[in-house]
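Why do we care about 3D structure at all? Because function follows from shape, and shape follows, mostly, from sequence. That is the central idea of this module. The next example makes it concrete: a single protein chain, its amino acid sequence, and then its structure expressed as tokens.
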Amino acid sequence: MSWLGDTVYSIREAATVNLKNLTEVFGVEWAKVAIVPKVMSMGTHPNYLFRMTTVQAIAVRDFGVFIFIITNLCRFA
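And the structure:
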């Protein structure tokens, strides 16, 4: 997960793809517990790069995790 905060864009981009691949291997339920909370917490980080990476990580996820994230975002709004 530390790759999501890397200073190099290509590393952050690859990290989001890796998270998608991990979700495919371990499943959506695992991702909801292991990945989503950490990615969502980056969405409130003072540094805009962390917030942009959060958006990118959401964009490359599969549909099941995406719906879960949007539901949680609406709950916090």
